[in-house]
Design goal:
Blueprint lengths: L2 H20 L4 E20 L2 E16 L15 E20 L2 E16 L11 E18 L4 E14 L1
Parallel strand pairs: 1-3, 2-4, 3-5, 4-6
């Protein structure tokens, strides 16, 4: 074995060991937000009032990859992998018997999911960001009224904002 081949082998070994030692792990983020609300009212008589309200807010912010300005010189460069699941459910039920009853039901659900992979200002060391988000919002409102002069007001507002880059 020549001195030239020994130097080449030593250089290759040093580069591979230093390259693997310098490469950080993948940035992986996973979040789950589960919000549930069950409301039920049973009223018998006259002049009853049932008011049910529910407000749910789920905010998930995830970032992955290298911090801004850090370069990746050895492949494979890390990838920012983000995954978020937001589940918001609401069930409201009112049963009223008599006359002059009033039922007011309201639900507001907001889910903000922001996912990003930090990038580099240097070509060609841009990481690929893999983002996955699931937002499920469900609302069920039920009113059973028996008698005369009853009124029912039901409102639902669901907002989902997902920003992935």
């Amino acid at each position: 074995m020549s001195v030239k081949s020994i130097k080449f082998c030593a250089l290759a070994l040093l580069t591979s060991v230093c390259g693997f030692a310098a490469a950080p792990a993948f940035a992986q983020n996973a979040a789950s937000v589960i919000q549930t609300s069950d409301q039920n009212a049973t009223q018998v008589g006259s002049g009853n009032v049932a008011i049910q309200g529910n407000v749910q807010t789920g905010v998930v912010t995830q970032a992955g990859g290298y911090p801004y300005g850090v370069q990746c010189f050895v492949a494979p460069c890390p990838t920012g992998i983000n995954g978020a699941t937001v589940l918001q459910t609401n069930q409201q039920g009112v049963t009223q018997q008599g006359y002059g009853n009033t039922s007011i039901q309201g639900n507001s659900s907001t889910a903000n999911v922001l996912q990003g992979s930090a990038g580099y200002p240097y070509y060609p060391y841009y990481p690929s960001g893999i983002n996955g988000a699931t937002v499920l919002q469900g609302n069920q409102q039920t009113v059973d009224q028996y008698g005369v002069g009853n009124s029912s007001v039901q409102g639902n507002g669901s907002t989902a904002i997902v920003d992935q880059h």
